[in-house]
Amino acid sequence: MIRVMVTGAAGRMGSAVVDAVTAAAGMELVARVDPTLTPGPGTFPDVASALAAGDVDVAVDFTQPASVFDNACAYLTAGVHGVIGTTGLTDAQLDDIRARADTGPANAVIAPNFAVGAVLMMRFAAEASRHMPRAEIIELHHDKKLDAPSGTALRTAALMDGDPVIHSVRLPGLVAHQEVILGGLGETLTIRHDSLSRESFMPGVILAVRSVAERPGLTLGLEPLLFPTEDS
Ligand code: NAD
Q1: Catalytic residue among 131, 142, 144, 145
Q2: Would you say the CB of residue 4 lies under 6 angstroms from ligand 1?
Q3: What are 56-92's pLDDT values in tens digits?
Q4: Run of H or E residues at 215
Q5: What span, in angstroms and rounded, lies between the C-alpha atoms of 103 and 94?
Q6: Is 141 a catalytic residue?
């Protein structure tokens, strides 16, 4: 049984993760962590009190750019593996987490997008850019999203040839969407992914919770979990 703590448990993503972990075979939800929840059995205002209260194997983090790094340092140092979906980590923070995961007692999986279709969209865009290097990325998200450009758009651009420009749209009604438009001589190619509900992220999150203990150090992105035979 994998004992799971969800940080950001009251949020849009965190509450979906609480439901997904509760429904998943072989997992037990042992702690919900969020300062906006009323403390009680299994419910904690911060990571430190949750770690002090009992045994946790994996923390799933969907909090905020301002909180995720301190949270990650706390649970990784305590030997709790991290599955981190919160976006907005700086390169320096990412390097620090990589060092902790490489040398410390716990591993981490950090993915800017846990939706399988989004991972495929990034992969197809990277492949297309080898042949059509002129491209632009339009990412569209709900208006409560704190960071821009999105982590998914930054990762897509990093995987593509040609240094694509990123445009960010924030509007109510949207969930998470991205279009990669590649332009060539007399032709364009559009690759689009739409997360229509937050359930789209849950299979990837559950896969990462099941896998993280067996993946030493830091795993960046869901790709190595989805395409294990290509893993170096
Ligand atoms: P949200 O604002 O609805 O939820 C965040 C929650 O975190 C809030 O309930 C807040 O009280 C809580 N929180 C803040 N600081 C905390 C702390 N120190 N400890 C515990 N809880 C804390 O946000 P959301 O829409 O659920 O998004 C959360 C994050 O997930 C964002 O960074 C977003 O970009 C990212 N996201 C990632 C993916 C992915 O697939 N990787 C998908 C969707 C969203």
Answers
A1: 145
A2: no
A3: 999 999 999 999 999 999 999 999 999 999 998 999 9
A4: none
A5: 14
A6: yes
